[in-house]
Structures are given as structure tokens and as C-alpha cells.
Specification:
alpha/beta, TIM Barrel, 6-stranded parallel beta sheet, 3-stranded parallel beta sheet, 11 strands, 40% helix, binds zinc ion, Glyco_hydro/deAcase_b/a-brl, Polysaccharide deacetylase
Length: 271
């Protein structure tokens, strides 16, 4: 088996994310490994759910306003991590059809322009090359237009894309689709799929051990060339039961570092 690359993606960073938790994660879990920090420029109140909201610290919501989170983002970038843009506000919006959809789905021209402008600003400020759409969902034509501008999109594979590969959209079919290298997939240059999101709920309900989870990621890395593990900072907030999340992820990262090269997502394109 050839060694592929695995990216660790940490989602939902904004100005009110407890910075001491981010420092603690860097010290105890990442231990010098590069991480792709997916940060929100103008996080809307309550857009991340109750666990994140109750853990927020006072201060500006924007990840780009002066403050300890901004300092941390500059520091980790200097050490080789990626700063990815994670939408604009992370809030869902009402579509004309009725139900609310993720921010970059059914996107209107004004929002598209604002997103491109934010990406360009972040590229100048943080060297940003990667967009992580909120909820991993984005209008596919818009995603292609960002690729044409030189950006990389890290998202979920859609059921339509799974079907285009001749696979069914069951969990098994979706898992098989992620083993196909990017050049074997239709229209997905510079678009890379999340392989697994490991959350507290995943750990509690999937019954998969760190060894099993690492096996899935390493197989995708080996066969497709790269794999992406998504984590959320708020799963690590100290509270009842968070200790086993730390222990699980710690073991998982050890196994990944033994079987793959750990890299930021921006380097996938070079592979
Ligand atoms: Zn998010």
C-alpha cells in the first residue's frame, strides 16, 4: 500500500471560540501536525448549535477582528497549518422553494460576490486557498467557478456525484466513491471530499474503534491519494463525557500519523 495524505480539518472557528481550548488542542492533540482551521468571518448568533453557543467567550464574532483567535490563526499559519474560509455567516437561509438551505446552496449573486471577496481578502491575509462550505454543501457550478479562480473546495460528495460514478448512494456506495482518485471522478478538479467527520455523536453511536476509523481514512488516503478527517472544536469543550472524545481522537491521530502523511488541505492539489 502506498502512503497517502490525510488532512485534519477543524471546523467552526470564529472570534468567540475559546482560544485557550485551541491552544490546548494544539498542545495535547495536534502536537505539531498541520491542521486545516476552517474559520467563519462573520459567524451568526446560534448558527453552530447549543454546545458551541454555550461555550462561546465574549468578544467580537468575526474570526478576522483583532483578538486572541486572530493571533492564533496567524501563529498556526506560520507553523504550516492552513486557514480555510468556512462560509460567511454559517447561517442557513430561506430558499425561494421554502425550506432553509445551507449558506452556499442556491446562492444568489450578491452572496457569491461577498464570498469571493472574502476569499480574496483571506488569501492576502492568511494565504487562504481552501473553502470549506458550511454543512459541506455548495452549489456545484459556484464551486467550479471558485476552482477556476485557483481555490480548493473541501466538501461532501453529493449523491448525484456518487451516481455519476456508477455507485449507489447507500453508505457503502458513498464509502466506495471516496476511494476513487480525483482524476477518476467527473468534474472534481481541486475539489476534495470529507472522508469522515468524527464527532462526539459518531464516537457514541457508531461503535467504531479508533483502529476501524483510522483504517477507513488510511484506505481512502492510499487508494484516492488523500483523505480528510473533520473535527469540531466544540466537541472538545470540557464537560461530562468529553474526556473520551479526547482519548479517541488522540489514539486516532497516532494511528493516522503512523500510516499516512499528515498535511494541510491546500497541498492536496500538488499531489
Ligand atoms: Zn461548520
Amino acid at each position: 500500500m502506498t502512503m497517502g495524505a490525510v488532512a485534519i480539518r477543524l471546523d467552526d472557528i470564529h472570534g468567540r471560540t475559546p482560544v485557550e481550548l485551541l491552544h490546548c488542542l494544539a498542545r495535547e492533540l495536534w502536537r505539531g501536525k498541520p491542521v486545516t482551521y476552517a474559520a467563519i468571518p462573520y459567524a451568526a448568533p446560534l448558527s453552530l448549535g447549543p454546545t458551541a453557543t454555550t461555550a462561546e467567550r465574549p468578544g467580537p464574532r468575526s474570526a478576522r477582528r483583532d483578538g486572541p483567535v486572530l493571533e492564533l490563526l496567524h501563529a498556526v499559519r506560520r507553523e504550516g497549518s492552513d486557514i480555510a474560509l468556512h462560509g460567511l455567516t454559517h447561517a442557513d437561509h430561506k430558499s425561494s422553494a421554502g425550506p432553509a438551505v445551507p449558506e452556499l446552496v442556491a446562492i444568489r449573486p450578491r452572496r457569491a460576490e461577498a464570498l469571493i471577496s472574502a476569499l480574496d481578502t483571506w488569501r492576502d491575509e492568511f494565504g487562504t486557498r481552501v473553502l470549506v462550505p458550511p454543512h459541506n454543501a455548495i452549489d456545484l457550478d459556484f464551486a467550479q467557478s471558485l476552482v477556476a479562480r485557483g481555490y480548493v473546495v473541501s466538501r461532501s460528495i453529493t449523491d448525484g456525484e456518487v451516481a455519476e460514478l456508477g455507485l449507489d448512494t447507500t453508505p457503502d456506495g458513498r464509502a466506495a466513491s471516496k476511494l476513487i482518485p480525483p482524476n477518476g471522478r467527473p468534474s472534481s478538479r481541486s475539489q476534495y471530499f470529507q472522508t469522515i467527520s468524527v464527532s462526539r455523536r459518531y464516537i457514541d453511536t457508531s461503535k467504531r474503534t479508533p483502529t476501524g476509523t483510522a483504517g477507513t481514512l488510511l484506505r481512502a488516503a492510499s487508494e484516492a491519494g488523500n483523505a480528510t478527517l473533520t473535527l469540531h472544536w466544540w466537541d472538545f469543550v470540557p464537560r461530562s463525557g468529553s474526556g473520551h472524545v479526547w482519548a479517541y481522537v488522540s489514539e486516532l491521530l497516532l494511528l493516522l500519523s503512523q500510516g499516512a502523511e499528515l498535511v494541510p488541505i491546500s497541498t492536496f492539489d500538488a499531489g
